[in-house]
Structures are given as structure tokens and as C-alpha cells.
Design the sequence.
């Protein structure tokens, strides 16, 4: 078991949360911009190759344990659910769905986590948790059907819901590693596993796109790899080992409105989700809040980035 973290000044934890919220919120609008040049898989490939390099450098400086035996298989699974499926799905979804709606949809991940943890880890679901799950499902349905401003199903939104499901599996699996691997180690090996899985499919197309892409699109992906990926993952992990998980996750719910505001900086994204989508987003966030606020355990989790 890992030893409890030493006492940390409150200001440092607050700063870590602020960094995480800002960078994760910014990722949605930047992805929607970069994906107009890079394909969904190419964007994920380049972004997490960059993140992997940053994390590897940090690991060389600080030191990191290597996984052994079955641990390698678990990391391949976290790489699959947390990166090589999660991010291409999210990137593809953002080709059709607004950045703000994508942020709201992906914030359904804790609801899915409660369901999967109840099945896989046999965690007891209280009635208030079940109520939160029901509210979240209703919100997700409204978001998916109302994204276009009417009750018309937008298939791309389902890819983002798929990303949220992957995130739930990723978070559930993480609990298996928290007693053996630190935040840097877990994030490093999961990212590298995801990159290795994407290589056979996306490596050559990514190289071709890099050679012809405008400089600004590549700079956007470099930003995504360094800040919303590597730095934000580590900042969030820093905060989660020092605060109860439910409290940290609840703070993360301010990400969607910040995302909507940041999207206004991009001329082609200056639109807000429909009233139906906003209503659904409000319900989804309310459901997630109910689920998390009913959890009284204080053990930390390293949640996936919501972008």
C-alpha cells in the first residue's frame, strides 16, 4: 500500500485543480479546431506521442518502476480504454458536436463508473446513487437527441458517449494500481501502451499529415500533448491523492461552462448548445453530482482527462 501523502499547503492543491480545470476545459475547443486538419486518429496519435515524451522525460528525472507480468496486461487495457479508443472516439465526435456539448457528454463518465464499479467491483449502490444514475441517463438522452436543436439523433454524439464509457472502465481499472504505482508511473505506462496500440493504424497517416499540415494545427496538437494531456493529468493526480475523490470530481463539473466560453475564441465555434442540450447537460451534471456526493469513501482516484 502507498503511504499517505504528507501535509500539503491548501494553496498548492487549489493551484493543481485550477491548472487541471483550465487545461481540460481548453482541450475541447482546440481539438475541434485541430481535427479540421488532422484526422481523429492522427490527432490522438501525435498528441499522446508528445505527452509520452514529456512523461518519459519526467520519469527519467524522477525515476519510475516498470510493470511486470500481469501488470503489463492491465496497462495494455488501460492504454486501450483510456487512450487508443477513448481519444479517437472523442476526436471524431467533435467533428460534428459542439465543444461545449462534448464536454457535457464526457462528464457522464462518473455515472458510467458507478454502474461498472457496481458490477465489476461489486460496490453497493445506494438508492441516492441509483437516483443520480437515473438523472444522469435522462440528461445524456436529452443531450444526444437535442444536440442539433431538435429531437434528432446525432450519431457522432454516440461516439462521445462511447468515450465516456471507456473512461469509466479506465477509472475502474485504475483502482487496481493505486497501491503499487504512483501517479506519474501509472499515467506514463498507460499513455505509452495507448501509443503503441495506435502505431500500426495511425503512424503513417500521422507522418503524412504532419508534412502537409499548416503550422498552427501542429502547434495546437503540441499544446494538447504538453498541457491538457501530460501536465493536467499529473496536476489532477496530485490533487486527488490529497482530497476526497468525490470533492475533486465535483469540482471538475465546472469544466463544461468554461469550455463553452473558451470556444468563443474560435470564430467557427461561436455557438451555444441548444436549449434542450443545455437542459440535458444540467441534468447530466446533476446526476453525476448526486452519484459522487453519496460516496463517502475518501480514497483517491486518478480520473481520466475529460478531453
Sequence:
Amino acid at each position: 500500500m502507498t503511504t499517505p501523502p504528507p501535509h500539503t499547503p491548501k494553496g498548492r492543491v487549489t493551484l493543481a485543480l485550477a491548472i487541471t480545470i483550465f487545461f481540460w476545459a481548453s482541450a475541447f475547443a482546440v481539438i475541434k479546431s485541430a481535427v479540421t486538419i488532422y484526422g481523429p486518429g492522427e490527432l490522438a496519435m501525435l498528441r499522446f506521442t508528445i505527452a509520452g515524451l514529456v512523461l518519459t522525460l519526467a520519469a527519467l528525472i524522477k525515476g519510475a518502476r516498470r510493470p511486470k507480468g500481469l501488470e503489463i496486461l492491465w496497462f495494455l487495457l488501460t492504454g486501450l480504454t483510456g487512450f487508443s479508443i477513448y481519444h479517437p472516439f472523442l476526436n471524431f465526435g467533435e467533428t460534428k458536436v459542439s465543444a461545449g456539448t462534448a464536454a457535457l457528454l464526457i462528464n457522464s463518465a462518473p455515472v458510467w463508473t458507478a454502474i461498472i464499479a457496481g458490477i465489476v467491483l461489486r460496490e453497493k449502490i445506494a438508492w441516492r446513487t441509483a437516483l443520480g444514475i437515473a438523472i444522469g441517463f435522462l440528461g445524456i438522452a436529452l443531450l444526444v437527441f437535442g444536440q442539433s436543436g431538435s429531437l434528432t439523433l446525432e450519431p457522432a454524439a454516440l461516439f462521445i458517449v462511447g468515450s465516456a464509457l471507456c473512461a469509466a472502465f479506465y477509472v475502474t481499472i485504475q483502482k487496481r494500481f493505486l497501491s503499487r504505482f504512483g501517479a506519474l508511473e501509472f499515467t506514463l505506462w498507460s499513455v505509452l501502451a495507448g501509443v503503441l496500440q495506435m502505431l500500426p493504424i495511425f503512424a503513417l497517416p500521422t507522418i503524412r499529415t504532419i508534412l502537409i499540415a499548416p503550422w498552427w494545427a501542429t502547434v495546437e496538437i503540441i499544446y494538447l500533448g504538453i498541457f491538457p494531456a501530460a501536465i493536467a493529468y499529473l496536476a489532477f493526480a496530485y490533487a486527488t491523492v490529497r482530497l476526497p475523490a468525490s470533492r475533486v470530481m465535483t469540482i471538475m463539473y465546472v469544466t463544461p461552462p468554461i469550455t463553452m466560453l473558451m470556444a468563443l475564441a474560435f470564430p467557427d465555434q461561436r455557438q451555444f448548445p441548444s436549449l434542450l442540450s443545455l437542459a440535458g447537460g444540467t441534468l447530466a451534471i446533476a446526476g453525476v453530482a448526486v452519484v459522487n456526493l453519496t460516496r463517502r469513501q475518501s480514497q483517491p482516484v486518478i480520473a481520466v482527462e475529460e478531453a
